[in-house]
Amino acid sequence: MAKKIKSVKDLMSMRDKVREEVDLRSGPKEVQVTVHMGTCGIAAGARDVLAALVRELDEAGAQNATLRQAGCAGLCDREPMLTVTDKSGGQVRYGKLDGKKVHRIVQEHLVGGTPVVEFLISE
Predict the structure, then answer these.
(1) 34 in a domain, yes or no?
(2) Which residues contact 67 (CB under 8 A, 6 or more apart)?
(3) Residues 80, 97: contact at Cβ < 8 Å?
(4) Is residue 22 part of a domain?
(5) By residue range, what is the domain housing residue 93?
(6) The pLDDT value given to residue 66
(7) Which of the chain's ends, N or C, has fewer CB atoms near its CB within 10 Å?
């Protein structure tokens, strides 16, 4: 259910929240995180992974990541997946994700700088 706006303060709060969400999807940052949202990914739970990623990035105060969506990466049996691309173009791909794994990826990789090896997949 949508939150009702009862005051200017409510409207300003909603505006600020939307701006933060838009900022996750724009501009060059240290890393780009792409959630694969093809039909296979969505069927495997990619929407939940995307929501968990938005929540975890927000809670961690991670300002270094741009969040994007893409289609199928051709590895349907490893969905839901996300790809992390650094400034130099280096990529790592994580697969078979859920909310707990997303939490660790945000904390250890996106905030801490160390990939979570046990969730990495090879093509």
Answers:
(1) yes
(2) 24, 25, 33, 35, 50, 53, 54, 57
(3) yes
(4) no
(5) 28-119
(6) 87
(7) N
